[in-house]
Amino acid sequence: MQRMLLQVTLRPFEVIYKRSKLLAVSCVNEDRKYGTIGIIMPAHSYSTEILISAKPDSVYKAITRDIDKWWTALSNQALQVGDKLAVRFEKTTSWVMTVSEAFPNRSLVWKVVEANHDLEDLSKKDEWKETTIKWEIAENKTGSKVTLTHRGLVPALECFEICQAGWGYFLGSLKDYLETGKGYPYRETIAE
Fold first, then answer.
1. Would you tell me the crossing angle of helices 160-180 and 56-64 to the nearest 10 degrees?
2. Which of 47, 103, 133, 177 fits as disulfide partner to 149, beta carbons 3.0 to 4.6 Å?
3. CA angle 52, 56, 58 (to 5 degrees)
């Protein structure tokens, strides 16, 4: 199937559509120079589901109070709307998120407000900034189905593959923590 770029011009704005999804809105000034005034992220953000043999209240507690038990020991608790969650890896990789939605035992949303993914291979260190991480918890026969959607973490980002692998690892850690009592969070190693 051939992909087409459909371009519709509305003076003084140019709206670009690709495959029926709005990608960008650009402004044309008097000198006919273009400047982007907004980028809309594609709908293909990272999303995954896992089944966990634990009740929704235990899952919710793990993603609000026990982050240090499965993601990184260098973190704090974020329990309600407005709380800030700070997570750190190594000396300089860190993210700060604000809880923007909290529905106990059902869902939780973090908005990333600061990002520094300090890996040598990444030229852009702040790709997570302004993304959102949504946790949805649904009870099932064996415990809970957990859906993680990281809106804005899309394949076009330089960090996508690293982050996809990282989420896979830490979701496995969350599952093990809830099912066995032992997760495998990042722990800073201290050189002796």
1. 130
2. 47
3. 85
- For residues 153, 154, 156, 158, the Cα torsion angle rounded to the nearest 10 degrees is 30
Rounded (10°) CA dihedral 100, 103, 106, 108:
20
DSSP 43: S
Give residue 132's pLDDT. Answer: 98
Cβ count within 10 A of residue 100:
15
The mean pLDDT of 158-187, rounded to a whole number, is 96
Q: Answer yes or no: is pLDDT of 92 > 60.
A: yes
pLDDT, residue 148, reads 98
Q: Distance (Å, rounded) from C-alpha 178 to C-alpha 33? A: 55
Whole-number pLDDT of residue 189: 65
Retrieve residue 27's tokens.
């402004």
Could you identify the residue written with the tokens 């043999």?
53
Domain coordinates of the chain in residue numbers? 5-39, 46-180
CATH 3.10.450.540 for domain 46-180: no
Side chain identity at 87, as an amino acid letter? V
Count of residues in the chain: 192
Q: Number of helices and strands (H, E) in the chain?
A: 2, 10
**In percent, how much of the chain has pLDDT > 70?**
76
For residue 3, what are its two tokens?
A: 């992909």
pLDDT surpassing 90 at residue 5: no
